[in-house]
Amino acid sequence: MRFDEAYSGKVFIGSCPDFEKSEAVIYGMPMDWTVSFRPGSRFGPARIREASVGLEEYSPYLDRHLTEVKYFDAGDIPLPFGNASRSLAMIEEFAGKILDRGKFPLGLGGEHLVTWGVIRAVHKRRKDFALIHIDAHADLREEYEGEELSHATPIRKAVDLIGPENVFSFGIRSGTREEFQFAARSGMHLAKFDVAEPLKRALPKLKGRHVYVTIDIDVLDPAFAPGTGTAEAGGITSRELLETVRLLAQADVRIIGADVVEVAPVYDPTEQTQIVAAKLVREILLGWVKKS
């Protein structure tokens, strides 16, 4: 499929049918080839789109309406089942084309390894960006069970690529002792347990910078997002996560792209996980695209 051709499936609410007129492009990365616990996040992008029909198009958080932002839903990248390396190459190419057209890429996952493909695309075009990583897990392993391409490794790969001083992780409450030790000695920024308050303290270091943001839905407590592959007790609330989006919308940073990953709908018959993910996407569109 071409990245800019019309998508015949269900689209995110309010999507513009014209790629050329769009400011942002939503695209799905339906991959869960390397998950270590519960698969199913490859179905996340489709269910987030379906849940979006229940949203109001107006955000009282940001006092903006979806008609104020033009965004195109490109559908899902047709990733080859089970082939992580080729899938990442396809994601990198797809995201790169969006960036080359001057548009804001907004990816829907899929397991968290998909972010590595996007980071590679961003890095080829802008060497000086910072990464904001919001997650329950450190994702700083060099390998998992002998596999370097794993949903447990994307942030370590990002550290190695862009430098630890450019990686800012928030909400982390799970990882090996070695991962936390690596974070401490490497010089990267890692805030345990909370997101909004440590983000406020970190924003002066990010002032004026280009930033890519990756959000793993499992940063939320399972009470708010049970539909994820590796749920982790002790997380933040959905209200706190929405407040984080607002903080970044008001901050002096230039957000150049984002993704929301690890929604696994099969584990949440109430659909609250995909509902909060859809609302998160709405807030990102309204709060961050204008700052691209």
UniProtKB/TrEMBL annotation:
Catalytic activity annotation: agmatine + H2O = urea + putrescine
Keyword Manganese: yes
Gene Ontology molecular function terms on file: agmatinase activity; metal ion binding
One biological process term in Gene Ontology: putrescine biosynthetic process from arginine, via agmatine
Protein keywords: Hydrolase, Manganese, Metal-binding, Polyamine biosynthesis, Putrescine biosynthesis, Spermidine biosynthesis
Family listed: Belongs to the arginase family. Agmatinase subfamily.
Protein name: Agmatinase
Species for this entry: Caldibacillus debilis GB1
Taxonomic placement: Bacteria, Bacillati, Bacillota, Bacilli, Bacillales
